[in-house]
Amino acid sequence: MPLTLASTLVQQAHASLNPASPQVRLVDRLGTAMFVTAAVVCLLVFAALLWAALRRRSGAEPVAGGRQERPMKTAVLLATGVTTVILFVFLIFDVSVGRSITTNPGNDALQIRVTGHQWWWEVQYRDSLPKNWATTANEIHVPVGRPVVFELRSTDVIHSFWPPNLSPKRDQIPGNENSLWFQADSAGVYRGQCAEFCGHQHAKMAFLVVAEPADQFEGWLARQRDTAQTPTDSRARRGKDVFMSASCVMCHAISGTSAGSRIGPDLTHLASRRTLAAGTLPNTRENLTGWIVDPQAIKPGVKMPPNQLSGPELLALVAYLETLK
Amino acid sequence: MTAIPADPARPTDDESVRRQLDETWRQTPGLWGWLTSVDHKSIGKRYIVTAMVFFVLGGLEAGVMRAQLARPENSVLGPDAYNQFFTMHGMTMMFLFAVPVMTAVGLYLVPLMIGARNVAFPRLNAYGYWVYLAGGLFLYISFFLNTGPDTGWFSYVPLAGPEFSPGKRVDVYAQSITFTEIAALVAAVELIVTIFKNRAPGMTLNRMPLFVWAMLVQAFMVLFAMPWVATVTQLLAMDRLVATHFFNPAEGGDALLWQHLFWFFGHPEVYIILTPGLGFVSMIVATFTRRPVYGYPAMVLSLLSVGFLSFGLWVHHMFATGLPQLGQSFFTAASMMITIPSGIQIFCWIATIWAGRPRFGVPFLFVLGFVVIFVIGGVTGVMVASVAFDQQVHDSYFVVAHFHYVLIGGAVFPLLGAFYYWFPKITGRMLSERLGRWNFWLLFVGVNLTFFPMHQLGLEGMPRRVYTYLAGTGWGPLNLLATIGAVLVVVGVLLFVINVAVSLRRGALAGDDPWGADTLEWATSSPPPPYNFAHIPVVEGRAPLWEQPGELPAVSGLRTDVRDVLVTTLLDARPDSLHRHPPPTIWPLLTAIATTILFVTLIFTPWGAVIGTPLLLLTLLGWGWPHGRDHQEQRMVEQTG
Amino acid sequence: MLILAVVGCKREERDFHGLPSGSAITNPKVREVDLVPGGAAPADSVPGPYEENAYAVSQGKTLYNGYNCSGCHFQGGGGIGPPLMDADWIYGSQPQNIYETIAEGRPNGMPSFGRKIVPDQIWQITAYVRSMSGLLRKDVAPGRTDDMQVRPQEQSTQKAKPVQSGIPKSAELP
């Protein structure tokens, strides 16, 4: 199921110019209007400048005051007036767009808690029953056509949640809870990236938002709520033993097992994700193996240390992780 | 003019006047003279050169960054090195180049433009330069010792706090800002007092050149803005060194407090950088269109409005932090409002050009370039002033494009124009016109090629401060284009340096007034003598050299054997009193060294205060030790024999 | 200036790859007790690799809380496990002793983490543990965390001169 990163990221092209939600569509409209106006203003000013500088003049020495002052005064006043009007219009436009994208979406909205960590995204789907909570990492699924409210937090430094096709950004500030909402109106895979400098691997802290039809979304959520499958294959079973006895359990949780640490990403359904390492690598066997052996070669500075598993242990471990769908 | 009795202290013939003034005011020769100088021109020149060295260093840092970003997943710089590079680039450009160079040109030119012999407090001026140099050296030496700051020039907490930035890097950040802020405040005080109290008689406030107005506004902005950054960096240093909790939410602090306090300084800071640039443009436009700038009152009021309004915009740097929408909209309104006075100035300049007879010398080319680049930056500024749009492009390359356009367009281009314009006055030689044109066009094309693609990159989702990006994002080609543009910029700047080096030795000799300009600095020789003017001029209009061609009326009756400076009233510049200026002295340098010892040791141990403070007090004592007037007079009389 | 230079470089290093896995330093062989026939012999001295590296010590602090050392030792005050911010050391205060304690475990409840925590990280935690009683230089020891303050920051902690406290009876070798 993992898509190649290239096709995943094709959606990224012209990200905020490629709206997939009414919110971004509105902001896009505002942006386009401002851009067109800006371009016209620039061209007018440049034209005026060039004309003023290059126009042909009669030989007489200029005199301050006199005949020239009247038209100059009119021109400057007119230009100032037009500028003021344009600015005022955009002020109104902006306030109205701002209100539209921040009005409460109502009780029908799905709520997702996204917590920023250095340098990955903890994604939690809560519910009135704690046993229905689903925790995953770096990949968010949303149903098409339903508003989704994000509760944005951080456990360490300031991060910023920004999926440009779907929503303007909002910072995740430790000690504060921020929120934003959007509604995906077309299915697709959209990429976002952390937008507040957060340390060494700020550059590789990306996430995917998968917008899918409501029934597919419900199916995905149900699978995410399940505990991990017990492996049947002998190699995978050995891999599970490796996971439990080596350093993996110190940081990673797999629900349904005794691995319960929350300081690293939850791996219960690792194999269902399209990417690894916060959007850095496509989720393939080779990439997963390479990541486990030496994460520092891929994301230098990340908190996961290089591993010293032997060859067979490593292969067994990867076989186990691949069963975590 | 009253009859003056013959008096050896007041010779009447021109040559002996100049000779005696020279003996009174000149700098001591040699290295000692350079270290003890209190001459604003000597200090101004070294200030400019130091700032330009930092400009080149900052540019080199940017060059390496662009080399790293030219291709996806490049390996020129790893993440830790890149973080240090982009932080150093920001700090160098903002704290060590942009503000100091404007200050420096101001300190050099303002006394000349207002007909004064020196700035109001000559020793303080020297102290300001040495502290600035110490701060720059402290930052760069730390950088070379792997202790350079790495959290960005605005260094948000909690990343820059004690938990997430171990070691001394951020302490170096906090303390190096202290140095540069002291230097900036010193310069602000100098400029304000000099402009208010040392103007030539007859130069009422509404006869002051527009550049002097710009520096006055800038100095007041510095006075009100710099203390905030000095304070907030000390709060950060305290959190890191003595476990205070200003920015610790768990103990009642707030991470957003940093942002508010920093940006309350940070936004006026960029207008502090811009305003002198606007002053340069006014002077160059007047000279190169051969008429005064149209709309003097509107220009002055615009400068004042920009200065005032700039303090009400700071939250536009925080639109993504989750502050209430309505409150943010207030800052949208203010950010858009400040466009109006900036626009008025541009319209007035265009009107001036229209009404005048432009000459397309290199300074004028830079002014044209300024209008194009600054206006592009200005309109993208209006775009990011809008909350909703900014929430898309905040912290992306769109903003990087915006601020480079306004800073390079609004400050660097006018600055280079100013260099081409005033180089003859400072050095006595003209810069090469031909090299200047190449310089201008390479920079103009290079800047646009480097930064225009960044608008698109930001809209495509590329965030700031990333040491690399994945190939699949498709950001490679535009980044490569930007890097190519950066190469052009580097060549352009190199040409400028070459032009300066060559012209210093082989440039055409400039006379007093090679451009036929209208302000007082062109009424003395190039370079000016240590005493600036043989006779303090009396001013009767806004453009003294145009309105009173030939000989200017001058003040008589001033002594030439002592460093007496005329003090005039604030509004109307009527002669008021005399101020005795100090001779060259080593104490400002020693005080700066003591200040350095105090600040640097403080980040390593609180004992730094115990070591540094007595040293500082000692040097201040030496500085302020009274010299009797008679004692000084006697010395001067002995010298002149 | 030169001292500052050398010291600064080591303090600020951020070595993401850590120690090479085959090196002697990752698996020190140290004696448990100092008693040897023929009088005291000098202890093997394996210097901790991160005693002067501020980045590593701060990583150690993060791991100390992340790996739940604080669950028994709290923030140095002790509880289920002995305190770590005082001057008493049962098994020695040298880096190699602390490394052994973490990697091999000790009688009376200290688990063996050698298979669970990679050597590089054990050295980081070791360095942090030493900072808790003020044994590291001030400019290397960490500052406060962004949490509720329950102990003075390590960089202001007075050095508690290590003292060999007696090995508890239940932990003595037979």
Report on the structure:
The complex is a heterotrimer of chains A (325), B (641) and C (174). Chain A is an alpha+beta fold and 325 residues long. In chain A, 37% of the residues lie in helices and 18% in strands. Chain A has 2 domains: 9-56 and 68-225, Cupredoxins -  blue copper proteins (Immunoglobulin-like), CATH 2.60.40.420; 234-322, Sandwich (Immunoglobulin-like). Chain A has helices at residues 5-10, 22-54, 69-102, 214-225, 234-245, 285-293, 295-298, 311-321; strands at 110-117, 120-125, 134-137, 139-143, 147-154, 159-161, 170-172, 178-183, 188-193, 206-212, 275-276, 281-282. In chain A, helix 2 runs antiparallel to helix 3 (69-102) and helix 5 packs across helix 8. The longest helix of chain A has 34 residues, at 69-102. In chain B, strands 1-2 form a two-stranded antiparallel sheet. Chain B starts with 13 loop residues before the first helix and ends with a helix. Residues 1-5 and 634-641 of chain B have low confidence and may be disordered. Chain C has 5 helices and 2 strands, in the order αααβααβ. Chain C has a two-stranded parallel ribbon with strand order 1-2. In chain C, helix 2 (54-66) packs across helix 5 (119-132) and helix 4 crosses helix 5 (119-132). The longest helix of chain C is centred in the last third of the chain and has 14 residues, at 119-132. Classes of the chains: A alpha+beta (325), B mainly alpha (641), C mainly alpha (174). Chains in contact: A-B, A-C, B-C. Chains A and B meet through helix 1, helix 2, helix 3 and strand 9 of A and helix 4, helix 8, helix 10, helix 11 and helix 12 of B.
What is the succession of H and E elements of chain B? HHHHHHHHHHHHHHHHHEEHHH
- Major sheet: arrangement of strands of chain B: 1-2
How would a textbook summarize the main sheet of chain B? 2 strands, antiparallel
What is the subunit organization of this protein? heterotrimer
Can you tell me the CATH topology of the largest domain in chain A? Immunoglobulin-like
Helix content range of the residues of chain A, please? 25-40%
Number of helices of chain B: 20
End-to-end distance of chain B: 29 Å
- The domain tally of chain A reads 2
